[in-house]
Amino acid sequence: MVFNRDPLGIASSVCVYILLLFGDYAIVYHVLEYGQHEGLGRSFGALLSHCLFAMSIVCHLRASLTDPGYVPLSKTKIDFSSDLEKTESGQKKKKKREPPPIGEWTVCHRCEIYRPPRSHHCR
After folding, report:
1. DSSP structural state of residue 63
2. What pTM, to 2 d.p., does this model score?
């Protein structure tokens, strides 16, 4: 569980919870109370509203407090010699590469680790 004590992030989360609470209150006590729903329909609407409110809170908390993870460093170094070509003066020059196919892991040339698709690090 990760909790970053960022004041702006905490204020944003509190605003989200206030808006969710207000939405639940408005639906249950104003829309359903004065709407055309009677008896079981009103009860079902209130129950559905409360369930959606609770699921929204749980999902927001799980997304906010979950560690995003990281790509661990590789224990073995990757050989990039096949990516270099020698010029006439004997200097090594990087070959032009085509972008990797979508959904395949790539190799970071700075820290030499495999990284998942669309991940960015090491900048």
Report:
1. H
2. 0.56
